[in-house]
């Protein structure tokens, strides 16, 4: 077996970045994707989110492979959440400190940039190759192509083939593979706020817009063409407002006029788009082990998460970063060791971010509309200003640092307990500026030490 | 679509019993199984447990289809657990009241009896038919046979094809299918205590023998040929005693002599069997929904559980019983309604028994060796004697009644809390017979009412 021949399944964002890393390691890299080459046969990405929020962990990897400057022009910084209430009023909640932003980026062009960089470095991308089986004892993949079915030896296999991974499907039939796939009760639908007639953004482009409505919400992210991609998250069924109960123009209009009127005024194509676009489901996937022989799962294939922390892609990019660092450390002839170290280190972190993503849905659709929540964020921001090393808000640890997600999660839980006590003061709204901030830090330090 | 043409996947215990029920309903029934017909081609059931414990829920179904008297001769009653300590001493803990027993039965002959009864009633069993795909929108199954691959229309499909169900695999690719498969850290290996040289049972045949050793255990169930089938449960790896560390005769001998010496003296073929038989894994499977169009999962296919409550088969038989009762109620033209009612009613119960089976492992391998545990069982038995309707021990609710598993689970948790308080008395060992039993019942009744 030639350990320097690497097969990557999936030419998406994660598969392409991993191919770049491995080419930079001087390895032979072949990538296989079931979809056609979008440059030759454009196709509709039905049911996949178009916009993503690129943040620190993602940028760190892109910088390492020398792509930061090429990606920046595709990305629009969002410095905070702009929360829209039912009467059209808005509140801005910064994500972090001054200049800290997450970046709105569209999947299509970004993916193409990464895939072309992989090709430029010598990776071969084979499109319209569907992996239908993997034989782990012989490290052999069965592909289905237009020309028929064939088998290929693959000494090292990296499955970056997403939430519906073929490699994982094959692993699931192996003994002692633990696996969980869980759909949440909500689905989503993508909609658009186009540029104005003057060709301008219809709202502030440097924010992630949210219309939180308790059990459901609408969000909007800016695009370089001055449109916004909106995503409507509703329960599938069983609620007053749910996908099941929107069946015609009049149902749709009444929901949008009632709950999202300011957005509605900016959506001339709402009715057409709503009934044309698919209603997609949201899945959380956890599994273990990620490794079977010389095959490993990466990104969504091993830990698909719901999108509410904006970390799916960033976490997948960090997977590539960490796997690459183990290759630096142990070389190219110790895949067993590299893969084993990687999965042992990484699993607690991906479990934590999957959990955080689930928990953040309630924050986005509900808490952000609560004045107490906004005040809480203010107090935390001030703590962070005064004691930048001793109090880093959870959102910042996840989004603007590369601290392990599990560590961030644990510290976040401590912060939450401390802040619950702070917020329990009935006069907090009046007194928040006069709090004994040093005392809060001391309580936190004591809690950490326990 | 002909709604009276039923296709059952799997000719195992559950598939065969379901075929019997449906034939008695006057429906057309075709059964498909990937294995060969054991009557023509005997094969080795590697990795499947040979012995099961048939109890009330199982008998109830067999009685309903008129098979109780035919099955009885295959079954050996076990009235309690016989616990073996490390010095060869034994303690008997009854399962229930006088004459209440669970019945040791071997898979092979029992399965054959059920399959032949299904055939006698007119069901057609097609062996060596592997289901490789199911198209739910067209209700079409793809089978792989020796003669090649073919497709068959199947208006109603019942997947009784076990923990590694093909029907479930197909469902897993459908949207919004929630699924979890979890392997526990222990595996098992089957061994034998043969009949004595005089052709007698080597131990009391009317008990389930247990050698509880904390983190691991050995059990033995009697067979009609006067042998016992033993099952050794050990962690796969990472413990002082585990499968990974038993690599030769001397490792094996030292474990058995040290921990199971009385059993070891009765196992002349231990070494040969140990290294010949596979080490099998133990899986827990939960999923939902069980229904997709006119297809439904039944038994292990929808809720495979670890074997420690002896309920896997009994629960599967009860699935058949309940599904049949909905057919009685709603007729043969309302499969949507029958399937929907079934899954809604049944899911909380199968979740509860999966959980109980997991929890009972600790009881079997550890608690039963504790004198306090035995005393606790005695007190509960006395409560049951004095107040037969107000205090039914959890084990009896599960094993000797047909109360819903979820209800039994909930009552069991209340009993546990009450008994924890009773057992907290430091003089309980001396005073247990003089307790105010009526007061205990009153506490329990109050807890139930809350």
CATH fourth-tier homologous superfamily of the largest domain in chain A: FAD/NAD(P)-binding domain
According to CATH, what is the class of the largest domain in chain A?
Alpha Beta
Q: Into how many domains do the coordinates of chain A divide?
A: 3
Binned, the helix content of chain A reads 40-55%
Tell me which oligomeric state these chains represent: homodimer
Which geometry of chain A do the CA atoms define? globular
N- and C-termini, Cα separation of chain A? 50 Å
CATH-defined architecture of the largest domain in chain A: 3-Layer(bba) Sandwich
- DSSP, total strands of chain A: 19
The DSSP helix count of chain A reads 16
Report the average pLDDT across residues of chain A: 95
* Biggest sheet descriptor of chain A: 7 strands, mixed
Radius of gyration of chain A: 23 Å
- CATH-assigned fold name of the largest domain in chain A: FAD/NAD(P)-binding domain
Largest sheet, spatial ordering of strands of chain A:
6-5-14-15-16-13-17
Residues in β-strands, percent of chain A: 15-25%
Structural class of chain A: alpha/beta
Please mark out the parts of chain A with pLDDT under 50 across 5 or more consecutive residues, or reply none.
Answer: none
Largest interface: A-B, 14 and 14 residues
